[in-house]
């Protein structure tokens, strides 16, 4: 009979010796932080209940958010600390909705490249200890696309639509195409556009209030107004040809990491300073990985690669068992997470999670 999958003791000893503290967040968690950060769509994938006061609770669907909350309570407004964890996470799906997970979170590290290098190095060490000594490494970097979108000469609402479209795998071409049904509301969109964002928002909120509508599908009147204004911007703004070419070229980058970096550097020659800076940062990151002895030449980088959790905002990586085409681990950078959870100061974050049940050595 196989035993419960667990993190090898050698890895636990390694983490403790490096100053990582064990985090043990409760299995039952407030649902609000997860829904606020990861979106209402998560509601369909998690196990929800309520306490006697009617507050929504859930079985923890991930460890990063509750560990971040533990860090905020322990460290206050500042301070750096690193944690590791092990235990089940719960989401609708395989394994009866329960899956064993272990991982690492590092908060407040000022040495960004060193922290990212340590995270990927630890993930590879743990993978080897669990029976996969040479997993495929997939890399991405949300910061590059974010910088490219920020550089667009377009209203903020339109840039928001671009971000969401790209995260769900949309094409640059579809961003210039009106959505089905929008043409029949062209007069309304034109009126809102001419009124300006503040006046347009006030008009929509007033109309919803007069109709007695406070929320629809979990969205407040203000959020509904923002979506109307976004559609207004989307219907009246088109990407300039140069911007479309640049975004299209970026989104096509998918190659071994060194070759992908060369391509990105060529694209950056005509890009905005923010895009050039993020691509230069990627070069520094690969240099740091190589100096640590990590297999950079075998890593694959894709701009389109992105993990499913919305709190990642920079480096993203996954370890894949190539023989079984199984994702074993994933992680990255999430510098905006603690702010989204209510921290008054920006706190850096980087970490990874291991899906213990997917490793061949996990149950032995």
UniProtKB/TrEMBL annotation:
Keywords: Amino-acid biosynthesis, Glycosyltransferase, Histidine biosynthesis, Transferase. One of its GO terms (molecular function) is glycosyltransferase activity. Residues 7-198, 234-355 form the Class II Histidinyl-tRNA synthetase (HisRS)-like catalytic core domain. InterPro entries: aa-tRNA-synth_II/BPL/LPL, HisRS-like_core, HisRS/HisZ. The keyword Transferase applies. This is ATP phosphoribosyltransferase regulatory subunit. The lineage of its organism: Bacteria, Pseudomonadati, Pseudomonadota, Alphaproteobacteria, Hyphomicrobiales.
């Amino acid at each position: 009979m196989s035993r419960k999958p667990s993190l090898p003791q050698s890895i636990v000893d390694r983490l403790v010796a490096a100053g990582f503290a064990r985090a043990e967040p409760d299995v039952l968690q407030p649902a609000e932080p997860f829904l606020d950060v990861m979106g209402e769509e998560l509601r369909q994938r998690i196990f929800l209940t309520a306490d006697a006061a009617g507050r929504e609770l859930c079985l923890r669907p991930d460890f990063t958010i509750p560990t971040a909350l533990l860090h905020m309570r322990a460290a206050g407004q500042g301070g750096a600390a690193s944690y590791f964890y092990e235990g089940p996470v719960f989401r609708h799906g395989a394994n009866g909705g329960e899956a064993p997970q272990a991982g690492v979170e590092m908060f407040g590290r000022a040495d960004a490249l060193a922290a990212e290098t340590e995270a990927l190095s630890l993930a590879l060490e743990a993978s080897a200890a669990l029976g996969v000594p040479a997993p495929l490494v997939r890399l991405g970097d949300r910061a590059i696309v974010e910088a490219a979108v920020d550089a667009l000469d377009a209203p903020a609402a339109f840039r928001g639509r671009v971000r969401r479209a790209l995260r769900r795998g949309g094409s640059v071409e579809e961003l210039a195409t009106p959505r089905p049904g929008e043409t029949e509301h062209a007069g309304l969109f034109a009126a809102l556009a001419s009124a300006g964002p503040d006046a347009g928002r006030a008009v929509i909120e007033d109309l919803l209030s007069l109709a007695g509508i406070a929320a629809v599908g979990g969205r407040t009147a203000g959020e509904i107004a923002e979506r109307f204004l976004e559609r207004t911007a989307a219907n009246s703004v088109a990407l300039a040809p140069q911007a479309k070419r640049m975004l299209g070229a970026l989104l096509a980058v998918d190659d071994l990491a060194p070759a992908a970096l060369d391509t990105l550097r060529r694209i950056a020659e005509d890009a905005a300073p923010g895009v050039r800076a993020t691509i230069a940062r990627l070069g520094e990151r690969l240099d740091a990985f190589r100096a640590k002895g990590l297999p950079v030449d075998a890593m694959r980088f894709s701009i389109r690669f992105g993990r499913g959790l919305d709190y990642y905002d920079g480096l993203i990586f996954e370890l894949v068992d190539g023989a079984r085409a199984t994702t074993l681990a994933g992680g990255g950078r999430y510098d905006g997470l603690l702010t989204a959870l209510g921290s008054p100061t920006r706190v850096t974050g980087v970490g990874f999670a291991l899906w213990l049940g997917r490793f061949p050595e996990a149950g032995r």
